[in-house]
Backbone:
């Protein structure tokens, strides 16, 4: 039997690809889910396990319940903590985003410590923990964001999802420092795209692409920049972080950064006029007016629209050893799958 790894969030968009990769490598993969009876959330993993060298175990645990990861972590040599709510559709950010991210990290990493067997923790953070508003780059006189930077401009009121990732990652570093019996490696993906192994995820990755394809921005794209990375590369990065002895610290992942109009251009290049895509940028002044329709306020527009983003990804390439999939391929696979599944 292969060495055991506990994976939180293994039923989700990114987590499912990580579980697939681990099973193919022959590990025993202990996936934690909130409700074991809800088999619809993880039956795709059971199917993947059938043809693999590894072994899948499903354990029940909740980020919000202290001690609930202890049993699953016992006997594992590593933990991959991927679970955290990734949604921009929330009512109470404190309860829905911040508490599960922060308390969840505490609970999962405490279980790693108490296990006595875990030697490595791989944490899925985000570039949202590296930078906040894209104007921050200009304000700080930076040419690009690197692993040295932490997002300082998000808060519980402004971009609470980003804030939840900052709090969770900082807590993880604090816990590593004080416990010392496991090593922490952090993965900071930018916006993740590519096909999904699960039909039940709430991940914003799928929602964002659906909005673009369904014409939400057809009158004009907000001039916002993002980093983009393939979901399969994100999974590889997690496995490299687990296996590569040189892996240490944080790792920004992005194949490239681009704005929404450039993204629309890639989709148009692949699929012609099949989707109602934006053909121009929306003027910033108009964005102040229509921003609320897209869930953003005037402050967000002022500090993000029109400010390019640059991310330094050399550490992921040169030390972690990650090779990136061209984002055109990621987008093609994702859009084709969404079309086949009649999502768009
Ligand atoms: P998904 O929504 O697909 O996955 C989130 C996972 O977290 C699900 O498995 C979900 O389980 C689990 N989860 C949420 N709340 C709880 C809880 N209270 N207790 C136990 N499990 C819980 O999103 P992604 O795969 O996109 O995101 C995974 C991770 O990657 C997150 O940490 C996110 O912040 C990070 N990330 C994502 C990016 C992206 O572009 N997608 C970019 C950068 C980072 P359930 O199925 O039960 O809901």
Residues:
């Amino acid at each position: 039997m292969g060495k055991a790894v506990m994976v939180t969030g293994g039923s989700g968009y990114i987590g499912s690809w990580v579980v697939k990769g681990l099973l193919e490598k022959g590990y025993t993969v202990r996936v934690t889910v909130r409700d074991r009876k809800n088999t619809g959330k993880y039956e795709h993993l059971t199917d993947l396990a059938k043809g693999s060298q590894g072994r899948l175990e499903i354990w029940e645990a909740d980020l919000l319940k202290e001690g609930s990861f202890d049993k699953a972590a016992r006997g594992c040599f590593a933990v991959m903590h991927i679970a955290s709510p990734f949604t921009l559709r929330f009512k109470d950010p404190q309860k829905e985003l911040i508490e599960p991210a922060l308390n969840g990290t505490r609970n999962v990493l405490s279980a790693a410590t108490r296990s006595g067997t875990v030697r490595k923790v791989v944490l899925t953070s985000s570039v949202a923990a590296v930078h906040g508003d894209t104007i921050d780059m200009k304000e700080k006189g930076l040419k690009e964001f690197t692993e040295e930077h932490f997002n300082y401009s998000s808060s519980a009121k402004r971009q609470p999802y980003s804030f939840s990732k900052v709090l969770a990652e900082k807590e993880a570093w604090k816990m590593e420092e004080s416990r010392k019996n496991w090593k922490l490696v952090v993965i900071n993906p930018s916006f993740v795209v590519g096909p999904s192994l699960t039909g039940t995820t709430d991940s914003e990755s799928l929602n964002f692409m659906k909005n673009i394809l369904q014409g939400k921005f057809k009158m004009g794209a907000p001039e916002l920049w993002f980093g983009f990375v393939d979901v399969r590369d994100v999974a590889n990065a997690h496995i490299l972080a687990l296996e590569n002895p040189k892996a240490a610290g944080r790792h920004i992942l992005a194949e490239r950064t681009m704005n929404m109009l450039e993204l629309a251009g890639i989709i148009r290049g692949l699929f012609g006029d099949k989707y109602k895509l934006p053909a121009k940028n929306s003027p910033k002044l108009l964005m102040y007016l229509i921003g609320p329709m897209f869930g953003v306020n005037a402050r967000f527009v002022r500090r993000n629209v029109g400010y390019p983003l640059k991310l330094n990804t050399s550490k992921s390439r040169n030390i972690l050893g990650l090779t990136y999939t061209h984002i055109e391929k990621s987008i093609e696979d994702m859009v084709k799958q969404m079309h086949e599944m009649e999502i768009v």
